[in-house]
Amino acid sequence: MSKISISDLELHYSNFNALKNVNLEIPEKEITAYIGPSGCGKSTLLKSLNRMNDLIEGCKITGTVLLDGEDIYRGMDINLLRKRVGMVFQKPNPFPMTIYDNVAFGPRTHGVRSKVKLDEMVEKALRDAAIWDEVKDRLKKNALGMSGGQQQRLCIARALAVQPEVLLMDEPTSALDPISTSRIEDLALELKKEYTIVMVTHNMQQAARISDNTAFFLLGEVVEFDKTEELFSMPKDKRTEDYITGRFG
Ligand SMILES: Nc1ncnc2c1ncn2[C@@H]1O[C@H](COP(=O)(O)OP(=O)(O)OP(=O)(O)O)[C@@H](O)[C@H]1O
């Protein structure tokens, strides 16, 4: 069953047509990867799924994005949408505050005041993000003192703390070393038991390793969308084949 259903989505940044007639069904509790050359619209589509483009002047969107059948662009409260659809960015961006406060930030914003409840939520999020053991004795230390890989897992914990249903990840490992990358990949595989994950990646091996479904983008269009295994072993479109075999741009 589709968690997110994208129909006839068109996006313009002023006069520039960044997404053209995108139709995609994102299955629940699976990892869906977006691949394609730089500038083809992967991040734009990802950000359209929790309305991060709405902030940009001149951005016009038509078509529909349904989350569990509800139109996110018509009538859905944006704060509720962002709670249900969390996001992790390319560069780890912890807030300049303690590890604890980073993770408690979202729940506090949503009105959780009880210390006991907050402690519980912070611990669960840090455990789910596979970083609890590394930080449990330094929760009151500033998050900026952590390594890049730890910071990224903290940002994942921060996103999980508000109990989202979908996690959007925009090249979450591109700033990380191979060991931290592999930890985030293992974590994504673990998280898909509970969450629907959509991930932009420049790394085709990464898409092949961890995603269930892959969409290949070119110049604002989805050229091909299929089960990852199919797309990499038997691409149907010549352009997909050229891209995944490295014969392209
Ligand atoms: N705020 C903006 N205003 C105008 N144009 C934009 C804006 N953001 C992105 N674009 C343009 O839209 C196109 C798609 O950008 P997007 O960031 O979605 O691509 P991408 O596939 O994620 O690229 P990359 O892999 O390099 O991150 C690009 O041509 C980009 O220059």
TrEMBL record:
Q: Name one GO cellular component term.
A: plasma membrane
Q: What is its EC number?
A: 3.6.3.27
UniProt key word Calcium: no
> Where does it localize?
Cell inner membrane
Q: How does it sit in the membrane?
A: Peripheral membrane protein
Q: Identify the enzyme class.
A: hydrolase
Segments forming domain ABC transporter: 4-244
CDD domains registered for this protein in UniProt: ABC_PstB_phosphate_transporter
Q: Which GO terms describe its molecular function?
A: ATP binding; ATP hydrolysis activity; phosphate transmembrane transporter activity
Q: Which residues form a coiled coil?
A: none
| Keywords per UniProt | ATP-binding, Cell membrane, Hydrolase, Membrane, Nucleotide-binding, Phosphate transport, Translocase, Transport
A Gene Ontology biological process in which this protein takes part is:
phosphate ion transmembrane transport
Highest taxon above the source species: Bacteria
Q: Which PANTHER family match?
A: ABC TRANSPORTER I FAMILY MEMBER 17
Instruction: Give the protein's function.
Output: Part of the ABC transporter complex PstSACB involved in phosphate import. Responsible for energy coupling to the transport system.
Q: What is this protein called?
A: Phosphate import ATP-binding protein PstB 3
